Amino acid sequence: MTLDVSLEEPLSPVPVGPVPGDLAPERRDSLLHALRHGRGLVGVVLVATVVVLGVLGPLVAPYGPTEQIKGANLLGPGAGHWLGTDELNRDILSRTLYGIRVDLVVVFAAVPVGAAAGVFLGLVTSWWTVTDVIAQRAFDLLLAFPALILGILLTAFLGPGVLTVGVVIVALEIPVFGRLVRTSVRTVREMPFVEASQVVGAGPWWVLRRHVLPNSLEPLTVQLAVSMSVAVFIEGAMSFLGLGVRPPHPSLGSLIKDGVRLLHEAPFFAVGPLAVVVALVLGLLLISQSLAEARRA
Amino acid sequence: MTRYLLSRLGSALLVTALASIGIFALIRLVPGDPVTVLAGPDATPAARDAIRAQLGLDQPFWSQYVHWLGDLARFDLGPSYKLGGDVGSLIADGALNTVVLTLFALVLAAVGAIVTSTAAVVGDRRWLNSLLSGLNTAAVAVPTFATALVLVLVFAVRFPVLPAGGTPPAGFFAQPDIALQYLLLPGIALALPAWAALTRFLTEALRTQMRQPYVTTARALGIPRRRIVLTQALRNALPSTVTVLGLQLGTLLGGAILVEAVFAWPGLGRLVEQGISARDYPVVQVLLLLSVVVFVVTQLATDVIHAWLDPRVRLNGVS
C-alpha cells in the first residue's frame, strides 16, 4: 500500500470561527446598534425617506419632469402645485422628485464603485513595498487636484452629463479609500493574531481577505457615509457650474440654482429642492457621526 | 529633523514632477484643437500649419515639454492663445484675487473655530453645546453655492448694505475698509464649511486634553477651568489642528471656484473655467500645475509645522 498523502500540498488555514485576538466580529454589532438608535436612526430615516421619494418619483409625480403646463407661470405653492411652478411653467414638485434620482445614482452607485475600486487597489498594492510606493504616489497625485478642477477637466473630455459626474466622483473616491485601507493593512498585519495565522500557512491573499478587510470595515463604513454626503455636494456644484445634468432635465443642483436665481420672483422655488439636499446630506452626516461614535466607544 | 525634512521634500518634488508631465499630456488629449479655435472654421490647411508651427505644436511631445519647463523656470510664459494678454500677467492678476479671498476665509474660519470651540469647552453648558452643534451641522449640510446666493440676496439685494460681487475698485490695499466690504460676503460663504470642520476637530481635541492627568492636577491646585483651557489645553490641542487647517486650504481653493462664480470674483477659478472651454493650453496647464504645487506645498508645510510643534513626529519620522 502506498501512502497517497502528498506532503507538498500547501497548508491552508481552516476557518474555525473568530480567530483569538481578532476584534472585527464583535464590533460589527455595535455599528448596527448605532444605526437603530438616536442620531443614527434619525439619519437612516432621513436618507430612507429621500430614497423612497426618488425611487417612487415617477409613480407619485403629478406631472412629467419637463412637462409645460398652460397658464401656470411661476405660481407659488398651492393645492394644484405643492411646490409651485417655474418660469417655464413646469411643476417644481415633479422636477424635484425626478431630480432626486440623479443624486441617488451618484450617491448609491458612483460612490460605492469608487470605494470598491479604491479598497481593491489599496489592499492589493499595499502588501508589497514597490507597488505600495507607486500606488500611494498615484493617490497623492489624484488628491492634489481639487474636486471641481478634476470635474472641469473631465468634463472637457466627456462632455457634461450624469455620467461625467459619476466618473468624477469615482476618480475622487479611489485615492480616499485607497489611502484609508492602506493604513489598515499596515496596522493589522503587525498584529499577533495575523502573525499566528501566517505561521500556519496563510498567504498574503488570505490575510488581506480574512483579517485586514474585516478589520478595516469600520473606518471604511464611516468614510462611505462621509463620501456620500460629499457626492451630493459635488453633483450640486457641477450642475451649478453647468457641468452636470443638461437642461431641461432636472437635478437637485440645477433646481437650487434656478430657484436661487429667481428668489425675487418666486421666493419658495428653492425651498423644496434645498430641503431634499439638506435632508440627504444631514442624514448621511448623522449616520457617519453615529458610526464614528460607536467605533470610539 | 533634517532627515525628516529631506524625505518629505523628496516625495513632494516627485509628485510635482509627475504631475507636471501628467498635466502636460492630459491637456493635449482634451478633444478640440487650439489651432481650430484660433484659425477659425474656414482657414486653409497652409494657414493652419503656419499657426501650428508658430505655437510650437508641430514639435514632438518631449521637446514641447522641455521647452515649457524652460519657460516656467524663466517665468516667461508667453502670450495666451485665446483669452488675450500674457499668460503670466493673467495668472498673476487672478492669483492675487484668489489668494486674498482664500486667506481671508482661512483666517475667518480659524479665528471663528478657536473662539467657538474654546467657548464650548469653557462654557460647557448643554444649551450652548446644542446650539453650536446645530450651527455646525447646518454649515456642513447646506451647499456653498446656496449659502453664497442667499448671502447676496439678503445682504446685497434685500438690505443693500454690502456689494453683491466684484472686487474692490481701488484694489485691496489702498482702502482697506472698502476692500473689507467686498471681501465679507464671499469670505463668509467660503469660510463656513471650513469653520465647521475646524470647530468640530478642535472641540474634540480640547475635550481630549481636558481628560488628561495634568488638567486634573491643575484643577486640584485650584486653577480656574477657563485659565486651564486658554493657557494649557489650547496650546496642546493646536498641533493636530494645524494638519486639518492645511487640508482645509485645499477645500477652500476648490470652494473658491463656486464662490467666484457667484460673486463675479475675477480669480483663478474663473480663469480655469474659461481656459478649459477656450482650449487655452498655456493658461490651463500652468493653472493646473499651480493647484498641484499649492497642494504639495501646504502638505509639506503642515507636516513641517506639525513636526516642529510635536517633537515625537520629527524624532520617529512618522506623521
What does this structure look like?
The complex is a heterodimer of chains A (297) and B (319). Chain A starts with 23 loop residues before the first helix and ends with a helix. Chain A is elongated. With 297 residues, chain A is mostly helical. Helices cover 69% and strands 0% of the residues of chain A. In chain B, 35% of the residues are buried. In chain B, helix 11 (225-262) packs antiparallel against helix 13 (281-309). Chain B has helices at 2-29, 34-39, 45-55, 61-74, 87-123, 126-141, 144-158, 171-174, 176-210, 213-220, 225-262, 268-277, 281-309, 311-316. Chain B has a single domain (2-317), classed as MetI-like fold, CATH 1.10.3720.10. With 319 residues, chain B is mostly helical. Chain A binds chain B through residues 137, 140-141, 143-149, 152-153, 155-157, 229, 233, 236-237, 240-241, 253, 256-257, 260-261, 263-264, 270, 274, 277-278, 281-282, 285, and chain B through 11, 14-15, 18-19, 22, 26, 29-32, 137, 140-146, 149-150, 153, 157, 250-251, 253-254, 257-258, 261, 269, 272-273, 276-277, 288, 291-292, 295-296.
Summarize the structure.
The complex is a heterodimer of chains A (297) and B (319). Helix content of chain A is 69%, strand content 0%. With 297 residues, chain A is mainly alpha-helical.
List the helices and strands and how they pair.
The complex is a heterodimer of chains A (297) and B (319).
Chain A: H1 24-36, H2 38-60, H3 92-126, H4 129-143, H5 147-158, H6 162-188, H7 192-199, H8 204-240, H9 252-261, H10 271-296
Helix pairs in contact in A: 1-8, 1-10, 2-3, 2-10, 3-4, 3-6, 3-8, 4-6, 5-6, 6-8, 8-9, 8-10, 9-10
Chain B: H1 2-29, H2 34-39, H3 45-55, H4 61-74, H5 87-123, H6 126-141, H7 144-158, H8 171-174, H9 176-210, H10 213-220, H11 225-262, H12 268-277, H13 281-309, H14 311-316
Subcellular location (chain B): Cell membrane
Organism (chain B): Nocardioides simplex
Main location (chain B): membrane
